[in-house]
TrEMBL record:
Membrane topology recorded in Swiss-Prot or TrEMBL: Single-pass membrane protein
Biased composition range(s): Pro residues: 75-91, 106-120
Source species of the chain: Microlunatus antarcticus
Signal peptide extent: none
The protein's name in its UniProt record: Neutral zinc metallopeptidase
Amino acid sequence: MPPPSDPWAPPGPPSGEGPGRGRGWLFAVGVVSALVLTGIVATVVVLAMRTDGTTPTAASPAATRSAAPRAVPAPGSPTPTPTATPTPTPAVTPASTTSPTAAPQAPLPTAPTQPAPAPGPDRSLKTNALYGVDLGKASVSCDLKVRRPKPPLADKKLQPYLTDVVDCLTKVFEGPLAAQGFTLEQPKVQTYHKRVETPCGDFGQSGSPAYYCSGTRTIYWPDTVDDGREAYTFARLGYVGLVAHEFGHHLQKTTGMLDAYAMAHEKATSKGGSKKEGYALSRRLELQAQCFEGVFLHATAKDLDVSSKDRRELKAWHSYTGDEDPPDDRKPDHGSSKSQFGWLDRGLDSGDFADCNTWTASASKVG
């Protein structure tokens, strides 16, 4: 979810890593709250500069005067009698006032040719290498105790438990992503009371139940959201599901999709661009994170004892979080309740990242 400045909104790039001017972005993205939601995002584009040097050309030596050719008599002609020719006195040439010609220089040595670096994994939105990750071969399991949000955890126990959930997510995804060329670093978790300042903006207790900031690769969690006012507390998998959604944004950052999204969003909304197109891109980003949440629940279904009852509770949770729900000023940037649960259910059914490609889905699927 977003910082108070509403980074998803098209009016110009926010500071930090949101779709920003220059070439840097900061992202804060969060899951939908039953109250208010929005989101931001982070990236840095580094410009590389190449300088070309020329090797000095060796100076050409001065031309040597050629002797005049001697006539060769034709065959049968009388041999002429040579006559003495006085040797002319050489004229004295005054010393030149110009600088002497520089001696030729050998070409400067050149560095040995280096082989071109091997291409990295595809980091685009539509054909990202993440879609080729095979979780079926993952043998890592999670020894994670599922903790229902009601009654809520004591604030001092909240951060350690959320960190345990992140540990589990990292263990499940780290190896398979490495096989595709991605290095997955574990994101941090920070709970906070009242307000917290981040590179992505200042977050309060109202708004979203959680935020992911790409600038610090941290999931920020207000410590009162589990006290009964948020929709996710309806579900046994409330804590796990919400962390998994925010971790989904971390996967987008790790695989380059969050950066690619920021560039596409800036292009769509800058210079009088379309708010409608900007919101459509935001929905694709958020619904993909929903699907990633489902992929994780599929991979850990046995360890976490995911049941049909859990699925019904997840559906009930998201019936309160759609763009069509109150408040009336809610931005259409996370998708309808139907779309949110639909993409989560899609990932939960298949357990395949390839089924989470919201960037190629029809507009009706990401409404």
